[in-house]
Amino acid sequence: MSVDTARPAVPHPAGADNRVVVDGVTLSWRDLPELTLLAPAVLLAQHARDALAAARHHAVHGTELLLTTASRVDAALREELSAAGFTVTDAAGRGLAPARPRAPEAGRLWLLTSGTTGRPKRVGHTLESLTTVRGQQPGRTWLCPYAPGSYAWWQVVTLSLTQPGQHLVVVEPDQLDDWPALAAAHGVDAASGTPTFWRRALHRDPAALARVPLRQLTLGGEPVDQAILDRLRQVFPTTRISWIYASSEVGAAIVVHDGRAGFPAAWLDRAAPGRPTLGVRDGELIVTSPYHGAGLAGPVRTGDRAQVVGDRVLITGRLDSDEINVGGSKVSAGGVRDVLTAHPRVAWARVGARRAPLLGHLVVAEVVAAQDLDEAALVRWCADRLPEYAVPRRIRVLTEIPVKETLKSDV
Amino acid sequence: MTELSRAQIRDLMGQVLENQGKVLPDDDAADLREIGFRSLDFSELALRVEDETGEELNFDAAGLRRITSVGDVLDFLAELQRQ
């Protein structure tokens, strides 16, 4: 990668004059350095500034691009991408030439899936298919805490690139713990993050979080339970709180603003032009979306467990990891997690299976407590709300909410 | 490997029952059904032993036997640690 600070002669996107705060420095999309990318290009961005510059480069030039972070691409994947005709370039300028050069596909953007079922795979998009917010929006300053190149990152970035008045404040990984101070200092009034991201902020310093003047708060990327929605509502009584279901494969498919977990069951199997159609088959969420990745037209099995509970459809977790078999009785790990996080002293919980004699597996959990909490009290809380076989039998108390680059706990 | 004594396993068994709001009687001859110690509790106790010793118990190595009393549980787990 080489950097040229000269401004390109070609037209900039509509949001080019929006404010972008990166590394604590305020500039605009237009002010970002001009990169020279050899298409088709893979940029392993080390800094947010490089990633934003690459996004703008694509918006201006249509360069075929896969943008991600170095930690997501191991040596084998680099070779694979090189074999697929990409020039793989890291932030230090080290490049891997394409093993089989090919003509670039103008306008193509590639995303790596989150890799929950093994190696990350490429999903093809365009700036158009990643831009799901199209109507005129009220002016906002958005927080961008996501890892460069993820679907959620592109959602925020395309909004700012394509709509005047949508400013961006980028959180670097080393700023994640104290992002509320950064956000408050730069007037962030809209923020999107995973439930784990929000739970960490609530747990670390709720007073600092409350000082961020949010008018829009969005959750996504992980199952969203009622407890986290309610806790955020306590801190932000007048903020619009939304949760969104989106993925690289199906795009942004579900957006819910009513403050409740799940989405209305009335939305199932309802076809409307330009909108995704949602279904539940054998306990799995099925999405047919106009915002799907390339080659994924038609109904897509999401791999996410969905269940109809009353008038809502709840999405509780990944099918391949959500079900725990305890001596022949099936337990939803997500359902147990929701019971744990509904406890007023639990800030975060993760539920899994552990191999055990007689029954095959037992349900176990890790929790982070907001206040003093003993295991026996938590077991009794669960026993009052769950079948006996679903009650976690070992609960480990952690001191910090774990989070990965994806801002998720489990992926 | 740290091996737990019979008394230490008894303490852990008491904790399992206490979490269920039950009490472990002092008498080793106490019947498991009467005190409400069931397969879920037995499995949990095995995990607690594993957590304390840092070693996975090898149930495949254990011969089939009848376990009906508190003493049977303690003897079984004490022996299993040595296999």
TrEMBL record, chain A:
What InterPro entries is this protein classified in? AMP-bd_C, AMP-bd_C_sf, AMP-dep_synth/lig_dom, ANL_N_sf
Which biological process terms from the Gene Ontology are attached to this UniProt entry?
A: fatty acid metabolic process
Domain spans labelled AMP-dependent synthetase/ligase: 42-278
- Hey, which family's this protein in? Belongs to the ATP-dependent AMP-binding enzyme family.
Question: Which Gene3D superfamilies has this protein been placed in?
Answer: 3.30.300.30, N-terminal domain of ligase-like
Q: Which Pfam families match?
A: AMP-binding (PF00501), AMP-binding_C (PF13193)
Asked if the record carries the keyword Ligase, the reply is yes
**Name of the featured protein:** Long-chain fatty acid--CoA ligase
| Transmembrane domains' residue ranges | none
Q: Residue limits of the AMP-binding enzyme C-terminal domain?
A: 338-405
Which GO-annotated molecular functions does the record name?
A: medium-chain fatty acid-CoA ligase activity
Instruction: Say if the entry is tagged with keyword Repressor.
Output: no
Keyword entries, A-Z: Ligase
